[in-house]
Structure formats: structure tokens, C-alpha cells
Amino acid sequence: MSDQSEPQKRPKEKFDFFQDQRVRSVFYQVMTAGLVGWLLLYLVNNTTENLQSRGMATGFDFMDISAGFSVDFKMIDYVAGIGTYTDIFIIGALNTLLISFFAIILSTIIGFFVGVLRLSDNWLVSKVALAYVEIFRNVPLLIQVVFWYIGVFSLLPAVKKTVDLSFGAERLLLNNRGLYMAWPVPGDLFWVTILAFVIAAVGAFIYSRRAHKLQDSSGEQTNVWLPSLAAIIILPLIAFFATGMPLEWDIPVLEGFNFVGGASVAPPFLALLVALSIYHAAHIAESVRAGILSVNRGQSDAAMGIGLKPSKVMSLVIIPQAMPAIVPPLISNWMNTVKNSSLAIAIGYPDIVSLFMQTSLNQVGHAVEIVGMTMIFYMLISLIISVILNIYNKRVQLVER
Amino acid sequence: MAIITKQKTPDRPAPLSETSVVGWLQKNLFSSVFNTALTLITIFIIYLTLSGVVVWGYLDATFVAEKRRECYDNSLTGACWAGVIAWLDNIFYGRYPREEIWRIDFGGLLLVAWMLPLWLSKVKGKILIGASVIVFYPFLAGYMFTGGDKGWFMQFMVTGAITAFVINMTNMLVGLLKNTSLDVFLMQLSGQADAGDKTQRNILLAMVATLFVAAFLWQASWNVTEVVWTKWGGLFLTLVIAGIGIASSMPLGIFLALGRRSKLPVVRVLSTGFIEIFRSVPLITVLFMATTMFPLFMPEGFVLNKLVQVIIAVILFNACYMAEIVRAGLQAIPKGQFEGAHTIGLGYWGTMGLIIMPQALKHMIPNIVGNIIGLLKDTTLVSIIGLFDILGMLRSISKDVPWVGLHKEPLIFGAMLFFIICFSMSKYSRHLEVKLSAGDKH
Predict the structure, then answer these.
(1) Which residues of chain A does B288 touch, with a Cβ-Cβ cutoff of 8 Å?
(2) Average pLDDT for residues B79-83, to the nearest whole number?
């Protein structure tokens, strides 16, 4: 305790080695670093010893070995026995990104829709939306994935009894082998149409910037949506017909026991897509609802007070203020969608985990390298997503002041 | 004109829309043409869904059958619940020996009895009760579930658990009947209520020691047979993994969170790195890491069984999420609290343990419950790496000869089970949140 008779002697003069904060801080840090370093060294030592005693190879040579198994859903050319494990890694990564991409889009659309329904004045509608959210949030995603696969998409009619979803046009066919779609094959001059589309889109963007500036300076409002939409639709259409409709449809045809041609996705893809979308939509709906509710009620009262229409109140006052509260949880939901797409392994959709981390690991060993690569893949994705989130947060903060 | 009257104007009746059913309907369901149409469409959709579910799941369903064929003979359009009913024991207990199932039930009941005083307002000493659950219950339950020969450590912990449980129960009874805590009551009983603190403490210690010795002698006289972990399964296994995962990730998460907020750069960087790595990868990759890499990490000849590998993976994974929850809770504490604690001379651990954590914990409760629910749901992933948890059991029904191909009904049953557990937990946490924040309202 302090020496009260000589108060001025207390500070600084006496250097107590054990009580000095800098010494302690250095000591604790060295101790932590030492402990962690020792643990890592221990694990690495054990691992190398184990690998040696089991005669297992290390290193990334295996990436050039050809993989002997076939993959039924792939976006790059790959033939079993010729393609390498590098190809397998790329196929798995692309498949993960593909399913995540579609699941994110679908779940965001459904989620916003349900989130708005949750706030409906209509009691029944809001309760139905609540039931949707509670049911799908409280059941494990894995059960849902397996259910959609085994309970729904595997029980679809057989190839002979294919369901035509395009009302007889044979452009969209569904059976227990998957969903078959007619796929557009662009002709030689199709680039003109795309160019027209790009020009129209850029024009619409510039036009809307102009309109905003005009409104900021003079308060005059111009209708942006209608002309932009018209330009974006009509210009490419004109180009398309002027170049002689350079687009053909690759239509799936029944050959033997299966459909050939067009594009197709297998039941696992559909099951995973539906399960992920519905599950994450329930979560997104909740954050949308919370975001809209976080806007002070006085805001909408005041907006109506200055005579805005209800639709304008929503689009000009509520939504812009709700977005900063909605977007961060929304983006973290997207990240969870990417991570949860790894449940593909339960139903045989060849994503990076099931293809690379399970099948390849069983074939070639190299546990450390394969697990490490897979984890780094996910880490990179979440890094990219969190960078996007940070940029957004910065922008929002600037606007908010 | 006299505007001021001395009589109070009688209250006008509430508008019809607030009191009558018709008014409520008109306001909430049929306020406009659009709303009416919306309501009717919704009612139609609800009718379609519900009628389909009721017909399939109840009216046309088969509840008693020997095999799946009999279900088909009964009705082709209904559910075959008979398969689920036949497998109920497996779904809940896995392949745990049937004559030993009472041990699992007993373990569950014990936990309920142990925690019961926490909900009774008259009982005193809740913090001690909560601590005793965390410190002692896992060992008693662990021994009940695994059985076999008690080592000296297990004997000691089981005795401690029994002692704690007996004290807890007497304390509850005393609290309910006499409205005091056990120690005060014992002092009154022995006529030492006015004696000095030291005498009282000695008497209590002697009592506890006697109880401990008695419990030790008693527990030495019985044993339960060993059940190897491979026989564990079903909901029991799910709850064991999730339970251990939650209980252990809580302290680990607190340390990681403190590390991440630490002023020491090395500690901060290490904690942050650890947290971010595990938070950015899916649980299934961590589980794969556990089953493929942990055997390599161990010294030669040392083999971890799969259950332990999985539990370690779950703890590491969940601790990182817990750490972020704790960190968010710590951030909600105003800086003045830290400064105040420093001013009255508390050091780092004193500040954290006595001032900050108790306040932060209150903010964290909803998130912690959310995390518990999430972990419980995520635990189903262990079925992918070959443990027969509840989902593993549900999926093996379709491979059982009499019930071949029975997929849908078990999955729906499992979904209902999880829904009941998770939904009631989240409802309870919301209730708790309201109850705890009642004091904050100004």
C-alpha cells in the first residue's frame, strides 16, 4: 500500500520491476507467443513424425496427378483419368460459387418479400409470414436439405413421364433426373444485341444521374424509370431483329433413356438451391423487418405530413434509412449461404467440400494440404465479402455524418 | 356558456373496431378491397396446405404396422408413422443398451432437478447453484452415461456432485418452506445463530465434510456397467455434443474475446486470427479437419476416438462465435464503467469479473441463446462424418429391412422435434430478455 508520510516519493522514483506495466505487458506477450509457438511446434513435429512413420507423402505434387473418378456436374472440361486434381479443385470451387450465387439471389428476393409481408397491415398475412420464418429458422438446414432431396426432388416423375413446365413448348422439363432447359446459343452477330444492351444501360445510368442532379438543383422531378426501361428493352430488340435474330435454342430431346441437349441441373442442385434459399430467406426476412422497424415512426409520420404518397414514403424515406440496418446482416447472411452450401456433401452435389475435401482426400491422402486449401478457399471468399461490407459501411457512415 | 363542469365527463366507449370481433376483422383483414382479396387468397392457401398436411399426416396415416408394406395396404396416400414409432427408442437413445436407458433418463432428470431451484424465486444462493451445475454435473452425468470402473478422480468428482446435489436439494426445500438459505437455517436449527462467523463456518464445513465422506462411502458401493461411446446415438448424442460444446465454448469464448480486446498486440493478433479463421469456414470443414488431421497432430500411438475429435472441433468452432457475442456485449458497456472500476482500485481481472462481465452478460443473453439454438441445429452435421446422432438415426430407418425406403416421415418427425426444442428456447429467451431489461426502463 502507499506510503502516506512521503506522498511525493511514490511515483516514478522507485522502479518496481514486477509492478511496471511495460515489463508486465512484454512478459505476458512473450509468454503467450511462447505458449502458442510451442503448441504449434509440437503439433507440426507430431504431424511430420506421423506422416513419416505411415509413409505418407507431403507437398502439392498430387495436384498434377490425374484423378480417376468422374464428376457429373461440372463447368469446365474434365474427363476422368485425364483431368488432374487441380481441375477437381476448380470444378468444386466453381460449383460452390454457382450454387451460392443462385441461392443468394433467390433468398434475398424471397427474404425481402417475406420481410415486408411480416409488416403487413393484414393480420393473417403477417402471421403466415411469421409462421414461415419461425418454421424454417428452427429446423436444422441439413434436415431441410436432405428432405428436399429425398422427399421431393427424388420423387419426381421418371423420364418417361417428364413434366413440361413450359406448357407444351418442351423448353423446360422436369423429371427425377433433373431440370432440363432450352439453352440459347448465340449466333455470329449476337454481339450487336449485347452492345446495344450495354449502350442502353449506360445511357440510362447517365440519364438517371442527370435527373438526380436536376432534382437536387431545381427540385424538378423527371420520370427516370419509364424511359430507361424502354431504352433498355427496345434498343437491344431492334438490334436483335435488325441482325436477323442470331439466336438459336438448344432444345433438350429425349434420346434413349435420357434427355440430351440444352442445359440441365441435377436434383441435388435443385434440392440444395431450394433448401438454402428458403432457409436463408427466413433469416433475411427477419433482418429486413428489424431494419424497417428501426426507422423511427416519426419519419414516416413526417413524410406523410409533407404530403408524400405512401409509395414515396417507403422509397424515399423509410428504405434509404433502413438500408444501413439491413445491409450488414444481409451480407453476413450471404456469407453464411456460401458456408452452408457445403451441406451439398449430404446429397452428393459436387461442391468443393464433397469433391475435394472428401473424395480427393480419400483417393490421395494429403489431409493437411487438402484441408488447408479448402479452408483458404472459404477464407478468401469471406475476406472478399467482408471487404465489400466494410466499403459499404464506410459509404453509409459518410452519408450519415 | 359554462365550459367548465364539476362532473367528470363519462368515458366514451372504445371505438367498435377495438372491442368487437367484427370491428377487429374489418380493421385487420378486410379494410380495403385489396386487403380483402389478400385475406381470401391467404385463407385459401392455408386451407390447401393444412388440409393436405392433415389428410397425409393424420387422417390417412398409419400408426400401427409391422412393416412398410402394411402401411401401403392401409393407405397409399397417408404417412407411415408406424416406422417412426417402432424406432422411437433408437431416435432418442441410439444403440444404447435397452436395459441401461434409465441412466440417460436419470441423467436428464438430474439436470432438471438441479436447475429447478434457479426458477424458484424463494430459493437463495442462485449463483452457487449455477456454478455447481457447471462444475459438478458434467462429471456425474458423464459417469452415468459411460459407466465402467470409476478411477480415483471420477470417484472424487462423483462424490462432489452427489454432495452438491444433496445440499442443493435441501437448500431448495428450506427455501420453499422457511424462506431462508440453508446455512442460516442450519445455524438456527443447531442454536448457533448468534455464534461468531468463524464458529459458524467451521460447523458448516464439518457438516459438508461429513456429507462428503458419507457420499464417498456410498458411491464406492455401486458401479454401473460400461457403455462404449460407439453405442451412443440419437437425440442423446446430439444433446451431449451440443451440451459439452456450449458449456466449454463459453469460457473459451470469453477468453478469446478478452484477448481480442486486449491492449497487448501479440495476444490481440493471435486471438483475432484464431477467431476469424474459424468463423470464415463452414463447420463441416472443421469436422473434416478434426477427423483427418487430429490423428496426425497427436503423438504416435495416442488415439483420440471420433466422438472426442468431433467434440473438440465443435468447441473450437463454437468458441469463436461465442467470442464475438461476448465482444459485442463488452462493447455495449460504456467506458465510464471501466474508468469507475479502475478508480476504485480494481485491476484487470477485478474490473472484468466484478463490474463488466455481469453487466455485459445481460446484453448477451439473447445472442447466447441464439448461439445455443444454432449449435444444436449444427450438431446434425456430425451425421455426415459417420456418427449416429439424431439425423443419422432418422436416416437409417430407411435402411432397416421392414421399413426400407421410409425417408419422409422420419425427417419430418425430426424437423418437428427440433422445431419444438428450438422454438420454445427462443421464446423463452425473449421472455427472459424482457424480464431482465425491466430494470433498465426509466
Answers:
(1) 353, 357-358, 361, 371, 374
(2) 90
